[in-house]
């Protein structure tokens, strides 16, 4: 079948289309220029399927590279779903919207294919512990898109395509490969991945994992059970805490792997982290709007927040630095038939890849989960009119922490649970300040959630 010259796509139309995609992570920035950097044709069709690496440039001088999996059909077919443009007599569109076009993916994995383009090769690699998918496996879109796009193959495997590309192994590939190799049972194990190697960069295009059938999203489960059985959900959290503790122990279990070996924090690295957070806090509190009554509990308390942060340098031993999840909250978990499953190990997608690979205190993950309990209690009220029982959040926190401290290798934490809790409070404060900035910019109605968290943490007794 004929193919279009994708490098000739209209730049203005391409930019508009990118801005309309939920996974495009730069909506807050003006896009000054877009163009196609590389194209690798995966299948000649019909329909033709090609991988395109597209650069979006911004007036600040920064740029981002996105992966587009594009289908091409004759314009006479009248294809409209996720249509990008018409070019050279063909309609160009997102191939994941077309089951026939997406069918190329399981076939290439089944073949263990290496596809060569003018500037790069794309390799469909497979591990040893899973059967390859059938070449004609059914492909269905998972529908819920965030920063990536996922399809399910034969209800046995799930392929996640990373939309924003950066040079190097994606942290999700690294983490899943490590945890799968070490037999950690509370993940959807890594089955395969797609590697891009070329003039532009070497990068991970996607990962394939076991599909967890019937799993219940941890966030949705919490909302449901806050309404029907709030104490029952608290009963599940000790086990979830234990899972996270054992996950951290597993991630720190190989001292011979430089990418995962635990490290002692240096005074220099601690000071740098403290200074960076301190600057963020100062900037946020200077810019707080004066006309928002939800901010009243913390107005003019920026100096208190910074004083609390300074405790980081006085905790003594801060424990070990390890690879960690990096974006842990209830929405990154599933409750399957017999266990909790932890998902989405790529870290915060908006952060640079090198930062997401950096070793940090495991308590940063714990802080993220504890803040999630505050959010679910407030979301239940905001979205469903359900008020959490008195003290529910505190009981949820203690159930989770009890499981966590029992499951984690204590050598990874500051000596003594009291010191660990002090450091945890600081990380929670950092997380709540980050949340406040996000909510002010995106969801003003939710501002009171991080405000309440900051106010509560400022009332915690000093060690």
Structure overview:
The protein has 463 residues and is of the alpha+beta class. The chain has 2 domains: 6-210, no CATH class; 216-458, Alpha-Beta Complex (Aminoglycoside 3'-phosphotransferase, Chain: A, domain 2), CATH 3.90.1200.10. 38% of the residues lie in helices and 21% in strands. The strands form 3 sheets. A 7-stranded antiparallel sheet has the order 6-7-12-13-10-9-8. Strands 1, 2, 3, 4, 5 and 11 form a 6-stranded antiparallel sheet that branches. The longest helix has 26 residues, at 417-442. It is globular and about 70 Å long. It starts with 10 loop residues before the first helix and ends in a 5-residue tail after the last helix.
Notable traits:
463 residues, 38% helix, 7-stranded antiparallel sheet, 6-stranded antiparallel sheet, 13 helices, Aminoglycoside 3'-phosphotransferase, Chain: A, domain 2, globular, alpha+beta
Give the tally of structural domains.
2
Report the average pLDDT across residues: 90
What is the count of DSSP helices, taking H or I runs of 4+ residues?
13
- Rg over CA atoms: 23 Å
Fourth CATH level, the homologous superfamily of the largest domain = Aminoglycoside phosphotransferase (APH), C-terminal lobe
CATH architecture of the largest domain: Alpha-Beta Complex
User: According to CATH, what is the topology of the largest domain?
Assistant: Aminoglycoside 3'-phosphotransferase, Chain: A, domain 2
Distance between the termini: 71 Å
Shape annotation: globular
Strand share of the residues? 15-25%
Oligomeric state of this protein: single chain
Going by helix content, strand content and strand pairing, the class is alpha+beta
Binned, the helix content reads: 25-40%
Describe the largest sheet. 7 strands, antiparallel
Would you report the number of β strands?
16
* Top CATH class of the largest domain: Alpha Beta
- State the strand order across the main sheet: 6-7-12-13-10-9-8
Given as residue ranges, the uncertain stretches (5+ residues, pLDDT < 50) are: none
The secondary-structure element order is HEEEEEHHEEEEEEHEEEHHHHEEHHHHH
């Amino acid at each position: 079948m004929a193919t279009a010259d994708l490098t000739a796509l209209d730049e203005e139309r391409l930019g508009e289309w990118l801005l309309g995609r939920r996974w495009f992570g730069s909506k807050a920035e003006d896009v000054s220029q877009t163009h196609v950097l590389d194209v690798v044709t995966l299948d000649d069709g019909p329909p033709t399927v090609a991988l395109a690496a597209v650069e979006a440039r911004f007036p600040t001088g920064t740029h981002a590279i996105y992966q587009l999996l594009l289908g091409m059909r004759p314009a006479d077919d009248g294809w409209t779903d996720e249509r990008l443009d018409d070019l050279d007599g063909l309609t160009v569109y997102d191939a994941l919207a077309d089951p026939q076009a997406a069918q190329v993916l399981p076939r290439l994995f089944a073949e263990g294919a290496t596809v060569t383009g003018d500037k790069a090769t794309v390799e469909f690699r497979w591990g040893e512990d899973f059967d390859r998918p059938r070449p004609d496996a059914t492909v269905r879109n998972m529908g819920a898109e965030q920063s990536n796009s996922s399809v399910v193959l034969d209800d046995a495997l799930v392929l996640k395509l990373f939309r924003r590309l950066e040079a190097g192994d994606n942290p999700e590939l690294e983490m899943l490969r490590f945890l799968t190799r070490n037999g950690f049972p509370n993940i959807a194990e890594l089955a395969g991945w797609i590697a891009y190697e070329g003039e532009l960069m070497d990068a991970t295009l996607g990962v394939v994992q076991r599909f967890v059938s019937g799993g219940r999203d941890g966030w949705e489960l919490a909302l449901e059970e806050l309404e029907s059985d709030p104490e029952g959900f608290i009963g599940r959290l000790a086990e979830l805490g234990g899972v996270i503790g054992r996950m951290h122990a597993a991630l720190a279990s190989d001292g011979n792997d430089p990418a995962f070996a635990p490290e002692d924090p240096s005074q220099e690295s601690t000071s740098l982290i403290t200074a960076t957070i301190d600057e963020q806090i100062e900037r946020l509190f200077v810019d707080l709007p004066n006309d928002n009554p939800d901010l009243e509990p913390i107005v003019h308390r920026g100096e208190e927040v910074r004083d609390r942060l300074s405790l980081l340098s006085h905790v003594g031993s801060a424990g070990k630095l390890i690879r960690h999840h990096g974006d842990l909250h209830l929405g990154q978990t599933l409750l399957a038939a017999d266990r909790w499953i932890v998902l989405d190990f790529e870290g915060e997608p908006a952060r640079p890849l090198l930062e997401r690979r950096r070793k940090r205190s495991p308590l940063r993950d714990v802080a993220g989960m504890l803040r999630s309990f505050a959010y679910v209690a407030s979301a239940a009220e905001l979205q469903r009119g359900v008020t959490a029982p008195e003290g529910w959040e505190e009981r949820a926190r203690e159930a989770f922490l009890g499981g966590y401290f029992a499951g984690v290798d204590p050598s990874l934490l500051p000596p003594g649970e009291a010191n660990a809790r002090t450091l945890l409070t600081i990380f929670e404060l950092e997380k709540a300040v980050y949340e406040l900035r996000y909510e002010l910019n995106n969801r003003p109605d939710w501002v009171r959630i991080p405000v309440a968290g900051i106010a509560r943490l400022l009332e915690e007794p000093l060690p």
